[in-house]
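Deliverable D4.2, example record:
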Amino acid sequence: MDAAAHDLTQATEGATRKLAAFSSALTFDSLPRDVVEKAKLCSLDTLGCCIFGHSLPSVRMLADVILGDGAAPQSTLFGRSARTSPASAALLNSTAAHAFQFDEIHIESTLHPGSLALPAAFAIAEAKKGVRGRDLIVAMVAGYEVGLRIGLALKGGMFKSGFHNQGTTGVFVAAAAAARMLDLDVERTNQAFGIAASQAAGLMAVQDGAMTKSFHSGHAAQSGVYAALLAQQGYTGIVDVLDGAYGTFFSSFVDDWAPELLTHDLGSDWKIMRVGFKPAPASNGSIAAMTAIDRIMREQNLRASEIDAITVFVSDNTLHHCGWPYVAERVQSVLSAQMNLFYGVAVMALERRAGIEQFDEQRIRDPEILKFIERIEVRHDPAFDAEKGRYRVGCRMVVRARGGAFETTVLYRRGSPEDPMPSSELEDKFKMLAGYAAGLDVGAIAEAVARLDEPAPIAGLAHLLSGGRD
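Output generated by the structure prediction step:
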């Protein structure tokens, strides 16, 4: 390789440094009001997902291992009385937030940024002490804006290559949030990005049901915290990690990317505003298909027993992400059902809802659900790949039933920016999820999150999140 192709002097003018400069200089006063309000909604949704996630067996297994290390108890595990080190708290809280597939998502970049930014920023904030809620908001927004732009620049290539964005691109979300919380300057924030990128990892085959999927998120959050803490000490990473050629982030993971998207309208086009929320604990393509079957059944007053066949037309992304055959012998866990469109449509048709009860270990091999799945077919329709993937989680559904054939198209998932969930519905979702943890005052937590933008320390919120136990 020509040594000139990896010229580190380019970093002084490259996107890595520009993003570091933006992130390190971000202040609360520079944030538009709608960005602040969105950050609070993202915080509430992420906390609910995290608290519920800590009740799941896979997260408890990880907690047993991590807490067994006996790290200094500095940072809260949301919904639990236990504390651990900032890096370990970020690992556990992020894993918990992503563990039940209920966390918010930025569709275009295929990232769940809240599950990364909030655990990383909050863990460091507690160790730092005296941090205000508005400082937490700033750190989170820094993480969202940096990470989402990197995800957009990948143009979907990470998924096509078989890598999981949450574990790969996610390290930048966490590193930017952690670096901003530590008040790192541009030089050390730049180094934090370079350190974090070397830890990027995650294979997409986990979508078949492996517990490791949520661990990718946790590892990325932990990596971001470590990267910021190391950079604070003067530790160095790949200084041009978003700009260089051989061995840098983009060139290592994908064949084609859009570097101009990294800094275009930085500081005026706020990517956090395109984050959407989930009304069901399932993959986005599955949620769109569930919306379609629900709509047809309601409009035509159909019962599941009256349906002969269902054909779902989807994008190439959805076909590979959640349109794979649902076979009982292949199902590893609840995640298999959550990531699968066949299961989502079947359970919605049979039970007319898709909540926590429908995605339960005792249900995922239910003979009635498996029998109904035989009536479903999933096909690729290139129309949903058009317009740069704008409709990639959408679908067209044709239902053949007694009385005729019925068709509907769902272009946008419920909870997306195009079909948003009202804040009252998000608060209800939070209270439902947080209610799975014993001893939490969920109403008080929701109120504290609503006041995050006030100049008060987060210590009160941390106290509530631990169940009032110090």
